[in-house]
Structures are given as C-alpha cells and as structure tokens.
Amino acid sequence: FVLDLLxxxxxxxxxxxxxxxxxxxxxxxxxxxxLVFVGSYFGFKKPAPEDPVRTNKIPRQIPEQPxxxxxAFSCLVGGVLPFGAVFIELFFILTSVWLHQFYYLFGFLAxxxxxxxxxxxxxxxxxxxxxxxxEDYNWxxxxxxxxxxxxxxxxxxxxxxxxxxxxxxxxxPMILYFVYMSIVSYGFFCLTGTIxxxxxxxxxxxxYGAIKIx
Length: 214
Prior knowledge:
Blueprint: H1 2-9, H2 18-45, H3 71-78, H4 80-98, H5 106-133, H6 140-148, H7 150-165, H8 171-209
C-alpha cells in the first residue's frame, strides 16, 4: 500500500486503483487470515511425530565447537552453493523483469530449480552431519538458515545488478527496486530454508532410525 502511494505521487499509470487495494485487503482478511486459523487448529490437533529412538529428558552439554562450526560461519558457507546454482539464470530473470526483455528458457529454468532443490538438500545434510558429529544436536534452526542464507547472496547480487546494469537515478524507482528485491529475497529465503530443513529432518530420522538398540 505504501509503495502504491509512492507511485500515485509520481502520477504513474502503473499505480493500482484504490478499489483493487480494497479488494486485496478483503481477500487477505476475509480468506487468508481465517485459513491460517483453520490450519493452525488442525495442526495443533494432529499428534506429534514420534522419535525413532528414545531420547533423554535432560539435554546433554554441548562441547566447545571449532571455529568453522560456528553457526554464523557454517550458515554463510552453506548459502554459497545454492546461490551458485542459480546466479547465472538470475541474471536473465532480472534482465527480463527490469530491462523488459523476453525470457523464454522456461525448460532450463525448471532444470535450474531442480538443481537448486538438490543443492539445498545436499549442502544442508552435509553440514548437519558435521554438526551432529561434533555432538551439537541443535540442528533445527541451523538447517533452515544454512540453505536460507543464500537469500543474502541473492540480495547482494541484486545490489550489484542495480549499480552495474540499471540506470535509475530517481528516488521512488530506487525504493521500488530494493523493496521488491527484498520481497523476492525473503521468498527465496523461505523456499530454500524449507527445503534444507525438511531434507535434514528426513536425514536425521533416517540415520537415528537405523540405530539398533538391544
């Protein structure tokens, strides 16, 4: 809504009409919000998944970790490979969006998406395995942030693309660009983080389920 007000201030024809904004607000509060509460109701009623092995009620003390297993370092390293799998295709997508060029490599885009999913899963599983070998069992959020940190590189690349390829000098178009790229980066963060978490979740249950306790 704030961005649309800025576009209105520039008297642009691309501004969304006020009636459309009201309709979107109605869809949000009348459809999306009730569905969130319905989903949370059924989610809380669903029984929690059982652990494949018996766990202690008292958490173990985590030993001191080496410097390369620090959460910030491992998360930043884990985001390099997922971003490296898509940054070439990202250039063509940004060019088609911001420079109004045609994009027609949708088959190759689907292939890149599959490679992105596999890369997120593999790098998160590998770093989670190293973490468990170091007796650090707090893998849940780190698994999400490991692959999700690729969104930081995506936003950094969008900043580089802005200053190297685009000729935008006015304040409002600049605000629109960075706000939209922030939204895209956040969506990319949620996507890659979810892939990494579920891959780790499957991996941890698989390896601990294979443990035979007599």
